[in-house]
Specification:
- This protein is an all-alpha fold.
- Helix 4 crosses helix 6, helix 6 runs parallel beside helix 8 and helix 8 crosses helix 13.
- The chain is built from 17 helices and no strands.
- The radius of gyration is 19 Å and the shape is globular.
């Protein structure tokens, strides 16, 4: 057992060094930097910000897709980026741009073990559900909950892109030995996709709260920081599996951490169950509304 633990720690440290040393690790995208700069200027208006974001039409399309998401909960349809900025507010737009920029920067190629569309769909629905849950529970950082939800599994994409041999081995262990993905990650890499996600947040100098919540989104009861956000992401993530809508194979046999009852003040297991069930129709409408 001692040798196994020592070997696992050696693998973990090796892969952390590899992550740090990856030369082609994407740099912070131009639009993300420019949006942040512009929002630091109190004179910036919705028109100015809209012109900047409109330089990236793919970004515009995704922001409008997010804004019109049934789970996102806006009362009317948003047809222009300027109106999206006005109705969502600068902070929410910044959070969306950050998350979408990171998703694009770490986009992986599709292969037989990796469905890029399914990954994007899962990330988008988890993010939208996390914001809706945060709003419904009165959690004040619902914009950050959206960002965190969109990025919670980004580490999986990094494994597929930068540790491809390890990725194939992980998939083989799952397919041939019925091992859970999270256990296979540790066996092969000695590091989890949650830890990689936290690393990326630190690498890009984003709020540590996002990294803390990403690190513990599978087990929010163990979180030392940002327990509420981790619990919200965990619940949204669990719902995708529970409803089999926007779910990801990496989360098969997802276990609900009942510690979220106390963390989110959800009363008891009976109330938690009714709370979860109340979102099923929203998920169904959300899935039906997605055209890409």
């Amino acid at each position: 057992m001692t040798n196994y633990l020592e070997n696992t720690e050696v693998i973990r440290e090796r892969n952390k060094r590899l992550l740090t040393g990856i030369r082609n690790l994407p740099s912070v995208p131009f639009i993300m930097v420019e949006v942040s700069k512009m929002l630091d200027n109190p004179r910036t208006g919705a028109t100015d910000l809209g012109k900047l974001i409109s330089k990236d039409q793919a970004m515009v399309a995704k922001i409008l897709s997010v804004a019109n998401s049934p789970l996102y909960g806006l009362p009317r349809r948003v047809s222009t980026i300027e109106f999206a900025i006005v109705i969502l507010g600068f902070d929410h737009i910044k959070n969306i741009v950050i998350a979408l920029s990171m998703m694009e920067a770490f986009k992986s190629k599709e292969d037989k073990n990796w469905n890029r569309r399914a990954f994007w769909l899962h990330s988008l629905i988890t993010a939208s559900a996390a914001k809706r849950i945060a709003d419904d529970l009165g959690y004040r950082k619902s914009g950050e909950a959206f960002t965190c939800g969109l990025l919670h599994d980004l580490g999986i994409s990094v494994i597929q892109r930068y540790f491809y041999e390890g990725f194939k081995e992980i998939c083989s262990l799952v397919n041939d030995q019925q091992m859970r993905f999270t256990n296979a990650e540790q066996k092969v890499l000695g590091i989890s996709h949650q830890e990689i996600g936290q690393f990326l947040i630190e690498k890009w100098n984003l709020p540590a709260s996002l990294g803390d919540a990403i690190l513990c989104h599978h087990n929010p009861s163990e979180a030392e920081h940002e327990r509420e956000m981790a619990a919200i992401i965990h619940l949204a993530d669990y719902m995708t599996q529970r409803f089999a809508m926007g779910d990801l194979n990496w989360d098969e046999n997802y276990e609900l951490d009942l510690g979220i009852i106390d963390i989110l003040n959800l009363g008891d297991e009976s109330y938690l169950e009714s709370f979860i069930q109340s979102y099923e129709q929203l998920f169904r409408v959300q899935i039906d509304s997605i055209k890409f």
